[in-house]
Structures are given as C-alpha cells and as structure tokens.
Amino acid sequence: MYIKLIGTILLPTLFTVSIYVLNKKKVLSGLNTYVKQVLIGITFGLIACVLATFGSTSSDELIRLSDSAILCSGLIFGGPAGIISGIICSIYCYFASFITIHEFIRTGLIVGSIVAGVYAAFARRFMFENKMPSWVMGLFVGITMEVVHFNLLFSANVNDFKDILKVLNVITIPSIVANGVAVCIPILIITVITKEPLFMRTKSKARISQTIQAWLLGTVLVALICSSLFTFSLQAMIANMDTESIMSDTISDVKKDIIDASDDNLLKITESIASEIVANNVTDYNELVNIADSYNVDEINRVNKAGIIYATTNNNYMGFDMRQGEQSAEFMCLIDGFNRKYVQRLMPLSYNSSINMKYAGVRLGDGGFVQVGYSESRFYSDIKERIALSAVNRHIGSKGYVVITDNKFAYQSYRTDSDILYLSNSSGPSIFGEMIEGTEEYTIVNGNILNRDVFCMYTTAEGYYIIGVYPADEAYFTRNVALYANVFTEIIIFAVLFAVIYILIRVIVVNNIFKVNQSLAQITGGNLDTVVDVRNNEEFSMLSNDINSTVDTLKKYIAEAASRIDAELQYAKDIQASALPHIEPNFVGKNEYELYACMFTAKEVGGDFYDFYYVDDNHLAITIADVSGKGIPAALFMMTSKTMLRNMIESGMSIEEAMTSANERLCENNDANMFVTVWAAIIDLQTGLMEFGNAGHNHPVIRKKDGSYEFLKSRPGMVLAGVGGVHYRRNEYKLEAGDILFLYTDGVTEATNINNELFGDDKLIESLNNAYKEDISMEEVCNSVKKDVDLFVDEAPQFDDITMLAYKFK
Q1: How far apart are CA 489 and CA 800, in angstroms?
Q2: In 3D, which of 121, 114, 132 has the Cα closest to residue 81?
Q3: Are 497 and 220 contacting, i.e. CB atoms less than 8 angstroms apart?
Q4: Pair 65, 12: CB distance under 8 Å
C-alpha cells in the first residue's frame, strides 16, 4: 500500500518539476502566456484524471491524489492553469462511473476537482501575490484542500453517514497527508533548483508579509490543534457517558424483568396458598405438606403477629422467632409496617446459611402472615423459561446485545444474530469470565470478541450474570461523525480566517506601507515635491501628514542652507576670479604680443586655472593647469599650485627646475591625494624663443602665420603632486611673428553631448581653422571655440571646467 502511495506522490512531482524546467528553457518560454496556461492546464488535468482512476488501495477504496496535481498546476504555474485542470478532471469523473464503487466518492471528486482549481487560483492571486508559495504553505494548501474535499462528502451525502464514515476511517489520514506532501515536494525541489532559501529569511531580510504569514499560520495551527483536541476529548467523554448510560439502562431493564418474573410467579402462588389456608384454617403439618406438594413449593410457614412460626412444613422451624435472623427479619415489615405483600430475593437462610431460598409473604387478617419458599433448584426451574426469553429481543444500539449466563457463565439467553453463535461452548464462557473478572457491577470494561473491539458491562440478578456487549465502533460512531464534522469544519474555518486576515493585513497595512515607501524613495532620491497621500485609514493619514510636514520643513531648511551656500560660493568664486590675472592696459598696450584667457567652471568654483606674468622686462610666463576633482577642494588646491609654481618661476628658476621643485612641495602633506596637470612656458618677447614644460597636460595648439592649426607635441611628464622625486624636461620652440598659441584644458576636448560623444581633438582643430581670419583677435579665438563646444553638447550638462588661453606673438 505505502510503496504504491509513494509512487502516486512521485507522479505529479515528476511532471511538475519537468514542466517547470521546460518553462524556463526555450521549449515553453517563447509561448504566449495564455497558450502556455492552457497547455499546462490540459497536461495537469490529464494527470489528475490518471490519479483519480488509480491510487493506493486501502480497504475497498483508493487513496486518490488528483487534487494534488490540480493544486500544483494552479499554485506553481498560474491560476488559469489550475482552473482548467480542475474542470478537465471534474468532467472526466462525471462520465467515468467505473472509478469507484461508492457513488458519494465520485460526487466528491466531481465537485472537489473544480473547487481545487479555484482554490489554487485564489491562493496564488490573493495570498501569494502571483508567485509560487513556499513549501510550507504548499503543504498547508494541500492539507486544507483535502479537508475541504472530505467536507464536501459530508455535505452532499448526509443520508450515507455510516458508509462515508466507514470509508473515511480508513483513508482520511493517508489521503490528507499524501495530498499535502504531493503538493509540498515539487515546490521543495523547485526551491532547491532555484537556490531560494528553504525557510523564511532572517529577520533582517524577511518581508513583513512573510513574517505576518508565518506567525499567522503558526497561530492558526496552534488554535486548530487545541480546538481539535478539545473537541475530541469532549466528544469522547460524551460518547463514554452515552455508552455507559445505554448499557446500564439495558442490563438494568433485563435485571428488573428477571426479578419481576420470579417475584410475580412466587407471589401469585403465595396468595393462592394463603387464601386456601385462611379458608380452611390450616395449621396441621400434614395438611400444609399436602398444600405444598400441590403447588410445587418447598416450604410453607404460618407466623403469628408476634413473629413466631407456629405452623410449618419444616418441624425444625417450629417456634422460630423471625426477628432473630437478618434474612428472616426482612418479613417483619408485614407485621410492623404497612406492607401486605413482600418478596425476598434468593439468598442464604438465617437458620442455615448453606441453604439458598427465595420467599414471599402475604399478611393475614389476624395480624400474622403466610410465608412460602422456593429452594434454589426449584426457583431456577420455575423461571428458566422466562430467563430464556429475557435477552432474545434486547438490543444495545443496533448491533449490541445482552447475554445471560448462570454463575458458571453457561449461556442461558442471547440474541440469535449476536456474536454468541460464532463462539464455541468452551471458548465463549471463558471470554466473558475473563473480561468481567475482578470488576464491579455496572463498570465498563474493554474486550475483544472475534477480533472486534467491544465494551462490556454486567450485573447480577437471582444468581444470573446479565452481560451487555456493545461494539466499540458503534459506540464511537456518533463521536467520530461529530469529530470529523467538527474538525473538518474548523480546519476550513481557520483556513478561511487565515486567508481573510492575511489578505486584509496585506491590503490594508503592507500595501499601504509599500505606497509610503515608494513615496519616501522618491523623496530620498531628491524629489522633495513628492507628496505622500495614503489615506485609507486614520493611522496612515496621520503618517502621510507627518511625512509631508517633515519634508516641507526639510525643504525650508534646505532652501535656507542653499541660500547661505550660494552666497558663500559666490564669495569663493569672486575670490578665485580675483586670483586669476586680468587683461590690463600694460598687457594690452604691448606691441610684442596679444593675449586673452577665460574660464567657465562646471560648478560655482573650479579646479582649472591660467596665469600669465612678466618674469622680467623681456620674458613673459604663461601657464594653464587642471586640478583633479571639482568644487571647493579643487579650487583650494588650485590656489596653492598656482601660487607655488609662480613663486618658483619668479625666483629665477628655469621652467624645468620650477616644475620639479613645485612637485616636491606639493607632494608634501598631500593627504587628499590630489594632483594637477600643468603646461607652462617662458617666452622671450624679443627673440620669440619659448621654453616650456608639460606635467601631464593636453598638448597645446600652434598656428604658424602661413599655415593651419596643429598640436605642439612634446613628451609629457608626470602630473604635479602625483609622486615625488620626478625631474621634468625642458622643451624649446621658436615663435615667429604672427604665430598663435592656443592653450586649453580637457574640459574642451572631453565635452560630451547627450549621445555620450566627445568633442575631441579633431573638432577642436576644425573649430580653430574655421574661425581663423587675418585680423582675428585672441578673444574671438576663445569665444569661437566655446560657441562650437556649446553647439556640440547642446542640452547636455557641463561636467568639467573649460579653460582657454590664446596668445599671438607679434
């Protein structure tokens, strides 16, 4: 049974995992979503049909796992697939009458298959956010669906409770567990394949919906277990009480019948004898003996009102005082009380305890009474026929019965359709003797008759054992029906509560938290104009108001801070601008050259700088540089670099010595690890000889008077402040009258448009050549290049400083 059950569990597992793998590959991934859902639904519908037809045999019914295939389809691949597979299985079960001998099972399959498909679609859509559930939730869904299935059996077949219960007692637990496992295992394997965590993520990573889901499920399971245990205990207690009540009532009725039968018979004889004795005033021994023989009794006594026997068939009792013995004293109620008749049970005599007698007495008009007695053997002979009929028609429930035995457990009376017929004369008595040995009357004892569990209870009457036998399955039938109904209903109720509470929490709380977080993400991303507007309830409305109020206050502070920063940056910009040389009359008025320089910073202050100054009357120094980074740090490093390099050159150092010395000084305490590229030159204004050095800077552009622009290339050295111990090279170039020297930073050639294209060296040369004319000024040269750069980048923002210096040797 269990090997076959494992095989049926593996069937949906194999297909589910295989289809999942194919779905991830090109085989199914390229299909339209709706087509894919239909194909998967049909496939799993056919698998469900197979599982509805074949299963693991238990008793005369199959453990069917068709629901598991339908649930796998809906939970793992999508709601439409689950519904389609459920409809296919339902239609098949409607027409396939051969799949079960029980019509109510087929009815459950027809309805349950559709319910399973809808249940899977609902759970995936509203509980699992259109994602595959965890294996724990898959187990939960599989179990609850099978419980719903069995509940449908109860609801649709209320008139066949006994047949349903007979089947459910055998297949319920295996079916519920097997369907839950059959849904759980494929999800577990897929989870391993996709390398997802098998258990809920750690608290630092778990989503709030997962945490709520886990705690809610745990709470529901604990509540369900406690409720089920309480229901089981209560129903078991009620069943035991009902069993004890019905058994005790039945054997008490039989006992009363036996006693009444013996009492009525003896009392009738006693009344007849008393009438005859009074009518004939019989006191003679022989006459009393004749009367006793004629009525077939063993003893007749006449007792006077003093309680003394004065006439008897047993001369040993003549003159005996009835008050002297416990047994005989019972009849004094006929003299001292208001009783006219009294019948005593069979018991030992006061005169001789070895003799058992049963007596009856009738009061006479003289204040005394007549007592008539049976011996034990004559008593049994007298009521034997009544005993034989006492248990024949007695039922305990529908299949329980009563057995009457003598004191040696020999059968005297029983129902003809009871188990007694199948017990041998030797084994039967011993079974009952062993069961009730050492127990008290009216106490339930457990036993087993013909491999069937039974409850037994006994009492005694007139020397007979009256034994009630009640089959345990019948005694617990009501309990089991109530238990199945209650537990199944509770599982469904708790499952519905779980789903409703979880969905409400997700819709009301979790989704609103996500909305708030989305707004906060926009705010933290810099969009302070975002308004949080989640107002489904008062709490979220208050939260939205508080966040909006906080953002408004933050915007106010930011505006104030921005205003202060703008003012401070403007001061810094003014200071930086003042640190750069200006074109003054003493420069403009010179006949030896024409010079113009400009700088356009990417931020309020920049890291580029240019410089020009006289070393002496005949030598002019020009410099252009680019500091790594931007903003305030670059501006500060620029000021330091500019001042240091100028001081070195003005001190009389050659260009290479000045750059080498400046590099060493800049490397000292350079904790920020900044550096600067520099191109610097000293020009002899009389001869045009230009001595220059390059510390990692862009090559300048030179234009001979009778040619076009070209790069003035030389071997560049290391950037300043990059590394100490570097010696820089001196280069020379002879300027002729009319030559133009154009210096620039990489903000020109690396200007980028919206297509991420660079302005580049070629466009720089092209721009300079296009702008050239015989009388062009150096300011026009710089402005023309800047105009072409602006046209190139268009709407793209400037990301680097642009600095240019144009020099014409006259």
Answers
A1: 73
A2: 121
A3: yes
A4: yes
CA atoms within 13 A on the CB side of 55: 25
Of 616, 627, 617, the C-alpha closest to 649 is 616
Those residues whose C-beta lies under 8 Å from the C-beta of residue 265, and which sit 6 or more positions away, are: 382, 383, 386
Check: CB of residue 224 under 8 Å from CB of residue 320: no
Give the pair of three-digit tokens for residue 249. Answer: 């009532």
* CA angle in degrees (0–180, nearest 5) for 610-615-619: 95
Q: Which residues contact 636 (CB under 8 A, 6 or more apart)?
A: none
Sequence-ordered list of residues with C-beta below 8 angstroms from that of 493, at least 6 positions apart, any chain: none
Tokens of 237: 């207690």
Of 639, 633, 585, the residue nearest 611 (C-alpha): 639
Sequence-distant (≥ 6) Cβ neighbours of residue 727 within 8 angstroms: 656, 660
* pTM exceeds 0.70 for this model: no
**DSSP assigned state of 561:** H
Long-range contacts of residues 46-51, Cβ cutoff 8 Å, at least 24 apart: 46/88, 47/11, 47/12, 47/15, 47/85, 48/85, 48/86, 48/88, 48/89, 48/113, 49/88, 49/89, 49/92, 49/93, 49/96, 50/11, 51/8, 51/11, 51/12
CA dihedral over 706, 708, 711, 713, signed as positive or negative: negative
CA angle 80, 83, 85 (to 5 degrees): 105
DSSP one-letter code for 308: B
What is the C-alpha separation between 682 and 614, in angstroms, rounded? 9
Instruction: Find all residues with CB under 8 Å of 517, minimum gap 6, and list them.
Output: none
HEC secondary structure over 112-151: HHHHHHHHHHHHHHHHCCCCCCCHHHHHHHHHHHHHHHHH
Under a CB-based contact definition with an 8 Å cutoff, are residues 785 and 806 in contact? no
**Whole-number Cα distances in Å, 805 to 73, 83, 615, 672, 779:** 74, 77, 18, 28, 9
Which pLDDT score is estimated for 586? 53
Each residue's pLDDT tens digit, 259-307: 787 788 889 999 999 999 999 988 899 999 999 999 989 999 999 999 9
Distance CA 17, CA 204 (A): 31
Q: How many percent of the chain have pLDDT more than 70?
A: 90
> What are 362's two structure tokens?
């009738």
Name the CA radius of gyration of the chain, rounded. Answer: 57
Q: How confident is the model at residue 102 (pLDDT cuts 50, 70, 90)?
A: low
Sheet containing 731-734, strands listed edge to edge, beginning at the edge strand earlier in sequence: 608-616, 619-627, 676-684, 689-695, 731-734
Please provide the size of the chain in residues: 810
C-alpha to C-alpha distance for 649 and 809, rounded to whole angstroms:
21
Evaluate whether 179 touches 134 at the Cβ level (below 8 Å). no
